[in-house]
Structure formats: structure tokens, C-alpha cells
Specification:
Blueprint lengths: L4 E5 L20 H13 L4 E4 L8 H8 L7 E6 L6 H15 L3 E5 L5 H6 L6 H19 L5 E4 L4 E5 L13 E4 L3 H10 L2 E5 L3 H7 L1 H5 L3 E11 L2 H11 L5 H12 L4 H12 L4 E3 L2 E2 L3 H4 L5 E5 H13 L4 E5 L3 H32 L1
Helix pairs in contact: 3-5, 5-6, 7-13, 13-14
Length: 361
């Protein structure tokens, strides 16, 4: 089996925000972000996810800056159909492929909130946004197959004789991650994507939800958090300290925003958190920060060994990629890469040897 791919979610700056703190800033710490990206590269993180949202800096120019400050690290561009027409978007992605030597992948997000979409002049509802996403991806695939001139007349986009002088480098295309928890999101991931990306759940919950995707030969990725320490008691003490003096006004703001969301992924993540017993969905999955950080904040908590073994349970359930974060995310990335990731690789090697012996027998 292939080793787990470990990606990390990029912070706004140096990555020192706690789980319960307000995370809406009116400035960008580019120097801090460059330093974070370079450290992630040194620690063998595969990819940094560059998120999108009204509360975040625009990811396209950030990636353009970061690829010139790194040499191996890849960048996952989160983007929403409807913001840029597919011709211009393909042109931007192709340009970054040459700037970065193809260190670019895409996380296509249909959108999570009609209110936020309206900030950008987009008034489509949930299912319509996903149908537009399918059309968007179909056009992008045609560009990356080298069709030119390209004429398209669909429900959401229309253009005639489109040509792009600069192709994706070496005639390829970016790896495509499709986010969403609805059946429609899964169908589009199967038809047009490489990896279905979703928020966390228990390994058994992920396995059950992922059956159709895996049968279709697509990958499954999970976006969640980790908190690992030498011992479980230290990890639990860190949780308690982290949530002290939490920003309750921020929690109320998050709740108000969630009420405007029509995203199945957001809805299901909050339902999971509400179903948890004393903030624990399982002995390893803590939900206490979901109210402050939303769906991605479901967190695997434990000792280094416990966290490594639990992430391997997800691999057995069909997960091949993780996009992780922590609080503060820079310190957690260091701990994870120094202490948890080597254990994961050791366990993967042991399981690989056992599989080889079983095949021989």
C-alpha cells in the first residue's frame, strides 16, 4: 500500500493561533507565512492547503509568492466555481504550474453559504452550485486535454473558440480534490475528480460514507486536526489549557454564520459534535473546538503512539490522504512531524512486511 499523504492547512501568518481565539484578522503576515511554508517543506509535508473564504486572503496571489520561496513543497489551491470563468482560471493555474514546476493541485469547493456567496454576486443554491461545479470541471478537463479552439455552450458558461497559449506544464493537469458531503458532491468527485475530500468522522463512519468513491477507484481524503503529546494525560491537559478564556463572542459569530450555511459537510460536522458525549465522539476524537472553528476542527487527541495508530485505522478504512491542522498549528506541525509521522511510517512498513509474508504463504 502507498504511504499516507500528509498535507497541512496553511495559517494566515506564522501559525500561532489557539483553537478558541478569534481568527478574523485585518492584516496579512506574508513573511510569517513564507517562514511557515519553508519549515513545512523542511519537515517533509507534502502540500499546504491554501484556503478560500471572505475572512481569508485571496489564495491565488499567495501561492504565486510562496512557490518562489520553496523548492519541493506543493500547494493545494482551494477555489470556487463562479469566482473566475473557467478559461481565466485554467490560465492562472497553468501559469502557476510553470512558476512552480507543477507544484499545484486544486481543492474545488462549490461553496458553503448562500450569504457568503452573495458577497461575490453569486446567488445559486446548493444543488445548482454543484451542477455548475460539474460543468466547470468538464471544461477545465477539456483545456487540459489540449482541446483548442474550445467552444462551449452550457447552463452556466458560454464561450466561443477559446485558446490558451500556455498549457499546463508538460501537458498534464493538476490533481483535483472535490469537497462536500452530499451525494451530489460524491458523484462529481467520482466523475471529474481524483480525491473526494471531506471533514472528519470516526474511521467506521468514513468507511461507510466512502464506499461508492472507493469502488469507483477514487481516493478519499480527510480534513481534521491533531493534538499529540508524549502521554495522553499531557494531551488532555493541553486541551483544558487551550480552551481557557475562550472567545465566546467569536463562538456566537460562528454559530450565526453556520445558520446561513446550506453545506451538507458543515451541517453533518456540527451534528456529529452535538451527538458527542462530553465533547468526545470516540475515545480519540474530540469535538470541543468545532463550535469555534467549524467542521475541520474535529480533533484526534492522544499520545504520539495513540495518534499514529488511530490515523492508521483511517487508512484501513480507505483514507489515503490527510489535511491536518493544530493549535497553534506551527507547534503542532513540528510535534507531528518529529514524533507522530515517524511512527506512522514505521507502522506502515511493518504492515507492508506482514502483507508480503501473507502473499508468500
Amino acid at each position: 500500500m502507498q504511504p499516507l499523504k500528509i498535507h497541512w492547512c496553511a495559517p494566515r501568518g506564522a501559525g500561532n493561533t489557539k483553537a478558541s481565539e478569534k481568527d478574523l484578522a485585518s492584516e496579512l503576515d506574508l513573511d510569517g507565512l513564507v517562514d511557515f511554508a519553508q519549515e513545512a517543506e523542511d519537515m517533509q509535508i507534502d502540500t499546504l492547503l491554501m484556503g478560500i473564504g471572505f475572512h481569508l486572503p485571496e489564495p491565488l496571489p499567495l501561492i504565486g509568492a510562496l512557490v518562489r520561496e520553496t523548492r519541493r513543497l506543493s500547494f493545494m489551491l482551494a477555489y470556487r466555481p463562479g469566482l473566475l470563468p473557467p478559461t481565466l482560471f485554467a490560465q492562472a493555474v497553468n501559469t502557476i504550474s510553470w512558476m512552480s514546476d507543477k507544484r499545484i493541485s486544486l481543492n474545488i469547493v462549490a461553496g458553503i453559504s448562500p450569504e457568503e456567496q452573495a458577497y461575490y454576486g453569486d446567488y445559486l443554491q446548493h444543488d445548482e452550485r454543484y451542477r455548475r461545479t460539474a460543468e466547470y470541471l468538464s471544461v477545465l478537463h477539456r483545456f487540459w486535454r489540449g482541446e483548442a479552439p474550445l467552444t462551449h455552450g452550457g447552463d452556466y458558461y458560454r464561450f466561443t473558440g477559446a485558446k490558451l497559449g500556455l498549457p499546463f506544464k508538460d501537458g498534464g493537469r493538476p490533481r483535483i480534490y472535490l469537497s462536500g458531503a452530499s451525494d451530489l458532491a460524491q458523484q462529481i468527485a467520482i466523475e471529474w475528480g481524483d480525491c473526494w475530500l471531506r471533514y472528519g468522522d470516526t474511521p467506521s463512519g468514513i468507511a461507510q460514507a466512502s464506499q461508492a468513491v472507493l469502488r469507483a477507484g477514487r481516493s478519499v481524503g480527510v480534513r481534521m486536526h491533531v493534538l499529540a503529546r508524549d502521554t495522553r494525560d499531557e494531551a488532555l491537559a493541553e486541551l483544558e489549557a487551550m480552551m481557557t478564556n475562550s472567545d465566546e463572542e467569536h463562538r456566537k459569530n460562528v454559530q450565526a454564520f453556520v445558520k446561513t450555511c446550506d453545506s451538507e459537510a458543515v451541517r453533518k460536522s456540527f451534528e456529529l459534535a452535538e451527538s458527542a458525549s462530553n465533547d468526545w465522539l470516540s475515545p480519540m476524537l474530540w469535538t470541543g473546538a468545532v463550535a469555534y472553528r467549524g467542521g475541520p476542527a474535529l480533533c484526534v487527541v492522544g499520545s504520539y503512539d495513540e495518534v499514529a495508530r488511530y490515523l492508521l485505522e483511517y487508512k484501513r478504512a480507505g483514507v489515503s490522504e490527510f489535511i491536518l491542522s493544530g493549535w497553534p498549528t506551527r507547534g503542532e506541525m513540528r510535534r507531528f512531524c518529529h514524533h507522530v509521522l515517524p511512527l506512522i511510517r514505521k507502522l506502515e512498513a511493518e504492515e507492508g512486511r506482514q502483507e508480503e509474508v501473507a502473499l508468500v504463504v
